[in-house]
Amino acid sequence: MTQSTKPGKTHAKRSLERYAVALETQRVQRVQRRTMTVLIIMQIVGTIGVGIAPSIGVLLAGEVTENEAWAGLARTASTLGAALMGLPLGNLAAKFGRRFALSSGWWLAAAGSTILVFAAQLSLIVPLFIGLLLIGAGSAVSLQARFAATDLAEPHHKARALALIVWVGTIGSVFGPNLGIPGEVVGNLVGLNVYAGAFLIAAVCLAAAGLIVFVWLRPDPLLRLQQLKPHASAPTGKRRGRIRLIFAEMRTNADARYAVIAILTAQIVMVSVMTMTPVHMAHQGGSITLVGITISLHILGMYAFAPLVGYLADRAGHRITIAFGIGIFLVSLVFGALWPDDTGWIIASLFLLGVGWSFANVAGSAFFSTVVSDETRASSQGGVDALSNLLGATAAFVAGPLLALTNFSALSVIAMFVLVPLAILTLSRPRETLAN
Asked: pLDDT-based confidence at 11, cuts 50/70/90?
């Protein structure tokens, strides 16, 4: 009797275990759906405020400083701010969760935008730099939101979840640079100039984004992940200890190192060429309207295809998707190198430059989230974003003298050489290492 009942008890125990696993899976999926909804709304609202920096912020820098050298430094302040905030925000997420880190970043950016209201209205140089530096926190948060989307995503859906957050950022990238018109309306109502009015709107959007994530990002996806995996992104002590772990991860984790190289290479190539294209077009006699259309198409290339890129990365593998990105980059740079004086080819080149960035960045970021260790997940993600922004700012700074000393064709060729290490690594890696 005892022997006959043991199989029945074992079967019942296994059934209960399967039911518990299925129930937990459903709970995680519900949390992930709620997380994605909150992140999408947050990203749309917040990136409207962030999108003001590279457009109206650049114009304000010229107006306030009345000096091209100072204006150039002011234009890079927001990018530098994003680089400086990336790692601290990642460490905050590791210690207190995504909700605390993301809301803190948005509110810091809102404070920067508020400072810029006074800088714009009173033509104050020091507050201008401080405000643009702080508003860079919004860019850092916008980038880290894509990693938050992957915390609880199923392994074969991580790239698509990340890509969706990247894609909705297009809305802010479109509306942010166009806050001048509503800024003028608001300015007239409250007695501010157009720049101050635009930054006032941006401050409201940034503060609202922080409120949205602070109130509704519950349960916190990273804290929930820590519950499922007790060692996932657990705090690692002092800041120096966390940084040491990140560097140790890059030395020992070949997959993570490859993903980081893909992200950084894409950023350097894209920023160096994109930054100098308006200057080159202006030297060729291109109008401001034509330059604006070209940059808009470039931004469209960066974000519009992100969901498709995420689907491809999940289905075909990250290595294949990065390889597509390298190929698109090369086509773009060949156009720029061979036909630098033809406006049509330059527009096509910049559009493809954005598409190539999308393939390499989305696939690289998704792969990094998949292979990075649980202990350094959030801090490493913040570190990658910080390094990406820092190298992007450096590339933009170096590209100016390069263009002055050579020409646009030479700049495109140099960018091709930057792609070579990533191309070699991609070709040498076995497909099964990156396949889902």
From this structure: low
Are the CB atoms for 161 and 150 separated by under 8 Å?
yes
Query: In 71-105, which positions are buried (b, 16+ CB within 10 angstroms) versus exposed (e)?
Result: bbebbbbbbbbbbbbbbbbbbbbbbbbbbbbbbbb
pLDDT in the model for residue 35: 94
How many angstroms separate the CA atoms of 75 and 271, rounded?
A: 14
Q: How far is CA 260 from the centre of its chain?
A: 13
Question: Rounded distance, CA 48 to CA 303, Å?
Answer: 15
8 A C-beta contact, residue 209 and residue 42: yes
Q: Please report, for residues 76, 87, 232, the alpha-carbon distance to residue 389 in angstroms, rounded to integers and kept in the order given.
A: 10, 11, 26
Domain boundaries along the sequence of the chain: 1-234, 236-436
The secondary structure of residue 149, as a DSSP letter, is T
Where does 236-436 sit in CATH, by number?
Answer: 1.20.1250.20
Residue at 382: amino acid letter: G
- The CA distance from 305 to 44, in Å, is 17
Burial 337-349 (b: 16+ CB within 10 A, else e): bebbeeeeebbbb
Q: CA 39 to CA 377: how far, in whole Å?
A: 19
Position 82 scores a pLDDT of 86
Cβ atoms of 184 and 193 closer than 8 Å: no
Tokens (6 digits) for 351: 């559009």
Digit-coded pLDDT (tens) for 396-436:
778 878 888 889 899 999 999 999 999 999 999 876 444 44
pLDDT at 232 over 70: no
Decide if 140 contacts 85 (C-beta within 8 A): yes
* Strands annotated E in 131-245: none
Residue with tokens 């993301």: 102
Q: Do domains 1-234 and 236-436 have the same CATH topology?
A: yes
Question: In the predicted model, is pLDDT for residue 134 greater than 60?
Answer: yes
pLDDT digits (tens, 9 = 90+) for 65-77: 776 556 656 667 8
Report pLDDT for 435: 40
274's tokens:
């994109």
Backbone angles phi, psi at 154, to 5 degrees: -65, 150
Amino acid 212: pLDDT:
97
CATH classification (class only), 1-234 = mainly alpha
pLDDT at 9 over 90: no
Whether 124 contacts 118, CB under 8 Å: yes
